[in-house]
Amino acid sequence: MKVQLSTIHKNLEGSWQVTGSKSEANRLLILQALFPKITIENISNSDDSKVLKKALTSSKELIDIHHAGTAMRFSTAYFAAQEGREVILTGSQRMQERPIKILVDALKSLGADIEYQKQEGYPPLLIKGKKITNNKVNLAANISSQYISALMLTAPSLPNGLEITLEGKVTSTPYILMTLSLLTDLGVEASFQNNIISIKPFQLSQEKVFTVESDWSSASYFYSLAALSDSAKIKISSYKQQSLQGDSSLVQLYQKLGVKTTFLENTIELEKDTSVALPEIYKANLASSPDLAQTIAVTCLGLGIGCELTGLHTLKIKETDRLVALQNEISKFGAQIEITNDSLKLHAHHNLKENVSVATYNDHRMAMAFAPLALKTMLQIEDAGVVSKSFPDFWEAMSFYKIKVEEI
Ligand SMILES: O=C(O)C1=C[C@@H](OP(=O)(O)O)[C@@H](O)[C@H](O)C1
Ligand SMILES: C=C(OP(=O)(O)O)C(=O)O
């Protein structure tokens, strides 16, 4: 599906309910499979959560996890410790290019039986579940935090728990802290000090209900709409001020881009704040919030300001190489952009080209990041259905806020 985007008017208001966080949901799905007395409320309706739920409840040998990175990494550790169970875990073509060796090596050092089915270091994997009694493991923490969360989630079900030593500079740290918080909230004894994560074995004796907060990464597209509007009073729910999600840093990140956030009960209100003087060059290190990089780069493009974004070293191994994808697509609007392996520099640009067709590279965030730009210029988004990976009703939300979405 290809869509043409334009605007009806640029004064945005109204309330929208955003689906549950896919990061929280996918952690809770693994914990629920290990501790069935868990109930999950406001679960994410994302493809990535649906695919993980299906994987965890299926009795099939072949499990296809499609594009879902967390589902792939979390279920690798889960199945490795399911004694007597044998599965082949596979995914989309891109998933077969997303590295998993750091996690597989860590699990093997603990005694897991995992074989690569095609290319060494990448899915698909043949996993023969084993009882894992070793309880000390080291792994590199500078490539993806998902490997660490994967080990942490399975750890409380292991007879001797787990002590994980992180090597190198830890990246995407809020996601590790989210995993830790969910574990301790469940009642697991767990700590993270001086690069050592320690998790004790655990059994759940009583029912436990978790309510998933709405997705802050999805909230970023509403922040971008507010920033690019003439005026905005956008209310989105259900959010809390003390979030487990690192992407709640949007509140500070977009304050400098002229968006004021007010926390009401369960809801945040985003207002365009015209009293803020926009920076000539917006600077941010996004090592803790990698999923916001595309949204912020496109907001700056729309505002006609430059940006220098750093800490982007994890972007190359996500749904696509997001640095290259951003460079290709932003250039189409006439702007100048330079990238390195871990940074992006956009030069201020006015007079955006019209009717650009944005390619999305099987990446939901490419489609969603560019959509709010319709407030500044007419554009097209190719393969617009990709949004369902994290935000299935994204186009309905855009239409609600007066973006005209036409299938072409
Ligand atoms: O643990 C998680 O839920 C996630 C961790 C991050 O990945 P990296 O740790 O690979 O940066 C993030 O980009 C991804 O969307 C979700
Ligand atoms: C990187 C992402 O997801 P994953 O790694 O779980 O595929 C994302 O949602 O932006």
TrEMBL record:
Positions with a binding annotation for 3-phosphoshikimate: K22, S23, R27, S144, S145, Q146, S172, D291, K318
Residue sites binding phosphoenolpyruvate per the record: K22, G69, R98, Q146, R322, R365, K389
Catalytic activity: 3-phosphoshikimate + phosphoenolpyruvate = 5-O-(1-carboxyvinyl)-3-phosphoshikimate + phosphate
Source organism superkingdom: Bacteria
Pathway it works in: Metabolic intermediate biosynthesis; chorismate biosynthesis; chorismate from D-erythrose 4-phosphate and phosphoenolpyruvate: step 6/7
One Gene Ontology term from the biological process aspect of the record: aromatic amino acid family biosynthetic process
Record has Nucleotide-binding as a keyword: no
Any one Gene Ontology molecular-function term assigned to this protein's record: 3-phosphoshikimate 1-carboxyvinyltransferase activity
Segments forming domain Enolpyruvate transferase: 54-398
Keywords attached to this entry: Amino-acid biosynthesis, Aromatic amino acid biosynthesis, Cytoplasm, Transferase
EC class: transferase
EC number: 2.5.1.19
GO cellular component: cytoplasm
Protein localization: Cytoplasm
Active site: D291 (proton acceptor)
Main location: cytoplasm
PROSITE patterns, A to Z: EPSP_SYNTHASE_2
Family the UniProt entry places it in: Belongs to the EPSP synthase family.
Self-association and partners: Monomer.
Function of the molecule: Catalyzes the transfer of the enolpyruvyl moiety of phosphoenolpyruvate (PEP) to the 5-hydroxyl of shikimate-3-phosphate (S3P) to produce enolpyruvyl shikimate-3-phosphate and inorganic phosphate.
Name of the protein in question: 3-phosphoshikimate 1-carboxyvinyltransferase
Source species: Mesonia phycicola
Gene that produces this protein: aroA
